[in-house]
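Journal club prep, shared notes

We agreed each person brings one worked example of a sequence with its structure written out as tokens. Mine is DUF6126 family protein. I'm keeping it raw so we can talk through how to read the token line rather than staring at a rendered picture. Sequence first:
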Amino acid sequence: MSDRDTDQRDIEQKLPRGIWFRLFIYVVAGHLFAAFLYLLFEVGAK
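Then the structure, token by token:
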């Protein structure tokens, strides 16, 4: 097993699964909000 695999496992053990889930939700929500703003300005510019 490589050091990288070991490091990845150590990171996953240090941060609970709930934090990764919350981070994923925040990233998705942030992208959806950015897409909404982009659409808003595109429609408003016409």
